[in-house]
Specification:
CATH superfamily of the domain at 7-72 and 102-174 and 272-353: FAD/NAD(P)-binding domain
Largest sheet: 8 strands, mixed
Oligomer: single chain
Helix content: 25-40%
CATH topology of the domain at 7-72 and 102-174 and 272-353: FAD/NAD(P)-binding domain
Strand order of the largest sheet: 6-5-14-15-16-13-18-17
Distance between the termini: 18 Å
Shape: globular
Radius of gyration: 21 Å
CATH class of the domain at 7-72 and 102-174 and 272-353: Alpha Beta
Length: about 400
């Protein structure tokens, strides 16, 4: 279908929403983003943009902005959380030449995407909370919290974990608690530490940390297994002492970071199924979902934002190709669903591997150490199917 002049309404001004808005606008669409907050902003946390996500940002003309806002990662290191000893180092310099592996603050990614969207002509409307997406008529019907109604021809649901667009396509779904909770925090740091993402592993818990903003800040995400349910909400504040007590048995390096934490947020980790239906064509309109609305993932492979960026490119490209809209939307889901399902499953597997207890833990760590020494390239190539995938090259 031709996108020149096509009006598109995107729900949500997060990574997925802003990326797809720019991708569509650059192809000629007239895009409006509806955001429920009073400003475009993000919580204070870091994220990792691997080469597959960086390739999309480069294709969107945001490669220089990404380089300016991020730190290019040197390696990923797995460490024994209790004594700090090295288990495996994945040297990211061994990756094939390309857009690189980047560490950056989530707010900085949102800022560069928002600037890119507006520069492409995207209109962003704030304080637009959508309470209902109704697909019973010829066009999607959006009902706001204030009771106002909109009937745009094409709706893109980038409205996250609790997506109204997903619910309209698939009905109500009940995620289940994984018996894991995660804390997130950032602390001030002295520049000069290597740009390494460290994973400190121990029975029943692990902690991930890496530098941000030129090394002046350090990101911390700490995960603990527990039977007590916690809300699936990033905005639940917790006592830093609870975090320190949970990781009191960890190495001095980790404990030193946690002593510097003065504000921490806690959220429960829930497992959601990948949505069976990502799109629907109507008599006079259509709806599609992407990002967390389509395939929420646990944060154990650092691919949530990267999958959202890939979705944005593939969806916009599909809609811009000659042909009818129904075929374009079906092609989008067919292209994305198998890959995202595989990535979500791999993240689930990592959740188990990080928390092994002895004696399996000791054997697994020994195996990783030997593999890292004898075949470091082979260990890194295990991730080629993720990092080496470039949706913009299709």
């Amino acid at each position: 279908m031709a996108l020149n002049g096509q009006e598109v309404t995107v729900l949500g001004a997060g990574v997925a929403g802003l990326a797809v808005a720019r991708a569509l606008a650059l192809r000629g669409a007239s895009v409006t983003v509806l955001e429920q907050a009073d400003a475009i902003h993000e919580v204070g946390a870091g994220l990792q943009i691997s080469p597959n996500g960086a390739a999309v940002l480069a294709a969107l003309g945001l490669g220089k902005a990404l380089a300016a806002a991020s730190t290019r990662a040197e390696a990923v290191e797995l460490r024994d959380g209790l004594d700090g000893s090295a288990v495996l180092r994945l040297d990211l310099g061994r990756l094939q030449a390309g857009p690189g592996y980047h560490l950056l603050h989530r707010a900085d990614l949102i800022a560069l995407l928002a600037e890119g969207a507006r520069a492409a002509g995207v209109q962003v409307q704030l304080l637009q909370r959508i309470d209902q997406v109704d697909l019973s008529g010829p066009r999607p019907r959006l009902v706001t919290a204030q009771g106002a109604e909109r009937t745009p021809a094409l709706v893109i649901g980038a409205d996250g974990l609790h997506s109204k667009a997903r619910a309209a396509l698939n009905g109500a779904e009940a995620p289940f608690f994984t018996n894991q909770v995660a804390w997130r925090a950032t602390i001030a740091a002295q520049p000069g530490e290597p740009a390494v993402a460290e994973v400190h592993m121990a029975p029943g818990r692990h902690l991930v940390s890496y530098p941000l903003r030129g090394g002046t800040m350090r990101n911390i995400v700490a995960v603990e297994e527990r039977p007590i349910w916690v809300e699936e909400d990033w905005n639940l504040k917790d006592d830093p002492m609870a975090l320190r007590l949970a990781f009191a048995g960890f190495s001095p390096r980790v404990r030193g970071w946690l002593e510097a934490v003065d504000e921490v947020w806690l959220w429960g980790l829930f497992r959601h199924p990948v949505a069976p239906v990502w799109q629907r064509n109507l008599a006079q309109g259509a709806v599609a979902i992407l990002g967390d609305a389509a395939h929420p993932t646990l944060p154990f492979l650092a691919q949530g934002a990267n999958m959202a960026l890939e979705d944005a490119w593939v969806l916009a490209a599909a809609l811009a190709r000659p042909g009818d809209r129904a075929a374009a939307l079906a092609a989008y889901q067919a292209a994305r669903a198998p890959r995202c399902t595989r990535i979500v499953a791999a993240a689930n597997s990592n959740a188990r591997a990080y928390h092994l207890g002895s004696p399996i833990r000791d054997l697994a760590h020994l195996g990783l150490k030997l593999a890292g020494r004898l075949a470091p390239d082979l260990m890194l190539r295990r991730f080629d199917w993720i990092y080496g995938h470039d949706v913009t090259a299709a």
